[in-house]
């Protein structure tokens, strides 16, 4: 007897969240499926493949005949995936045969066309009713003008929102690319070493085990840092970065940050020299966020300095602003790369001196934190001689956003 073709289809948004289930012969989607990510239906080993399918689908408008394993009730099952972009959402069909998936995707396209036609008919009917209203003698022209102005304003606001959504969608697509690319290597390290330890733990001596655990720890630390940066940027791009202002002595803040990073600096035999101001520098800031910004500057200076090279930290008051400068005597940055350093997802060609990883997000987050405080950021660098990064904060408090 010929085996029954398993299949499912659905509409989802550009983030992969299910909007509507159309067909589900294997009961993969439960009643609460709407709003959930369809990637979770794929077996873990094919997660990168489904992400690549989704990226191709969004970038090219369609993707066909992708064989991907799905976690069914009776175990992993290979489905052929077809997908297409339909305006503001995406349609996906999958079946255990290519022909089955192709036919199911044709049904998805038909359903979409029916919905489009329905919207067109409603629009035509609205236009007909408006024309009929215009023909009536009692029609109030002033009221029409007011309504038309409101409609124009709504259209402008809608266009603005669409631009914002398009920007956020591009950011989210970058998130997917970053997650798929930058998380893959540390995950591979963790899985590789844990597989070795699981299969033959007794076959390794203490030194080898410590080395493997250290590599696993570093990979996990990098992944945590990347995820934290991505969450910070998500808050920034959604406009939800808020300040919890309190009065702080900026001199104390700088000294405590230097003390925290000194262990990292000592590991590379790098001294940190601090030039404080004449007295206290009282200022209204969000302490946690300024700590995050200054720590980023200090760790970057250590990361890109050679062992034994000094780092200078300067706190000064100029023009009603408190300015913190972190100067290293390391490799420097190429001139054509300097102006892009504070953009999201940017990395320079300069490499860390001890193989420390970088997400390319830290300086962008620093810029947003400082600007939310009403301040400015800047950088100066001479390739082969070193760099100095600074940010300034207004001495007068700014309203919390």
Brief overview:
It contains nine helices and twelve strands.
Layout of strands and helices, then pairs:
Layout: E1 7-12, E2 18-24, H1 47-60, E3 62-72, E4 75-86, E5 89-95, H2 98-135, H3 141-182, H4 184-199, H5 206-237, E6 246-249, H6 250-267, E7 272-275, E8 282-285, H7 287-303, E9 311-318, E10 321-328, H8 335-338, H9 362-372, E11 376-382, E12 386-394
Notes on the structure:
The structure is a single chain. The chain is of the alpha+beta class and 401 residues long. It has 3 domains: 7-109, PAS domain (Beta-Lactamase, 2-Layer Sandwich), CATH 3.30.450.20; 148-240, Helix Hairpins, CATH 1.10.287.130; 245-394, 2-Layer Sandwich (Heat Shock Protein 90), CATH 3.30.565.10. It is built from 9 helices and 12 strands. The protein has helices spanning 47-60, 98-135, 141-182, 184-199, 206-237, 250-267, 287-303, 335-338, 362-372, and strands spanning 7-12, 18-24, 62-72, 75-86, 89-95, 246-249, 272-275, 282-285, 311-318, 321-328, 376-382, 386-394. It has a 5-stranded antiparallel beta sheet with strand order 2-1-5-4-3, with helices on both faces. The protein has a 5-stranded mixed beta sheet with strand order 7-9-10-12-11. It has a two-stranded antiparallel ribbon with strand order 6-8. The longest helix is centred in the middle third of the chain and has 42 residues, at 141-182. The model has no long low-confidence stretch (mean pLDDT 81).
């Amino acid at each position: 007897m010929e085996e029954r073709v398993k299949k499912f289809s659905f509409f989802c948004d550009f983030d992969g969240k299910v909007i509507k289930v159309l067909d589900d012969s294997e009961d993969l989607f439960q009643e609460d499926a709407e709003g959930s990510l369809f990637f979770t239906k794929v077996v873990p080993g094919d997660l990168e493949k489904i992400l690549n399918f989704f990226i191709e689908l969004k970038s090219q408008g369609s993707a066909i005949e992708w064989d991907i394993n799905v976690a069914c009730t009776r175990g992993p099952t290979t489905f052929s995936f077809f997908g297409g972009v339909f305006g503001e959402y995406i349609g996906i069909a999958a079946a255990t045969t290519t022909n089955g998936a192709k036919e199911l995707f044709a049904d998805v396209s038909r359903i979409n066309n029916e919905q489009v036609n329905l919207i067109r008919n409603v629009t035509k009917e609205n236009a007909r009713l408006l024309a009929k209203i215009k023909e009536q003698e009692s029609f109030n022209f002033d009221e029409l003008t007011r309504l038309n102005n409101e409609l124009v304003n709504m259209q402008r606001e809608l266009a603005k929102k669409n631009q914002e959504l398009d920007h956020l969608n591009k950011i989210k697509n970058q998130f997917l690319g970053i997650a798929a690319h930058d998380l893959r290597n540390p995950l591979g390290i963790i899985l590789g070493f844990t597989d070795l330890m699981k299969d033959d733990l007794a076959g390794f001596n203490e030194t080898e085990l410590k080395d493997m655990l250290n590599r696993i720890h570093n990979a996990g630390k990098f992944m945590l840092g990347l995820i934290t940066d991505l969450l910070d940027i998500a808050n920034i791009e959604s406009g939800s970065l808020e300040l919890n202002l309190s009065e702080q002595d900026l001199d104390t803040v700088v000294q405590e940050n230097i003390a925290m990073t000194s262990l990292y600096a000592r590991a590379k035999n790098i001294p940190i020299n601090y030039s404080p101001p004449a007295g206290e520098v009282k200022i209204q800031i969000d302490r946690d966020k300024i700590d995050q910004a200054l720590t980023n500057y200090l760790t970057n200076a250590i990361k890109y300095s050679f062992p034994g090279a000094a780092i200078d930290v300067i706190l000064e008051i100029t023009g009603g602003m408190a300015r913190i400068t972190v100067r290293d005597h390391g490799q420097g940055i190429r001139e054509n790369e300097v102006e892009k350093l504070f953009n999201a997802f940017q990395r320079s060609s300069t490499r860390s001196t001890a193989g420390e990883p970088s997400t390319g997000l830290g300086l962008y987050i620093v810029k947003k934190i400082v600007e939310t405080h009403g301040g400015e950021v800047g950088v100066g660098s001479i390739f082969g001689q070193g760099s100095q990064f600074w940010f300034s904060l207004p001495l007068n408090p700014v309203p919390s956003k």
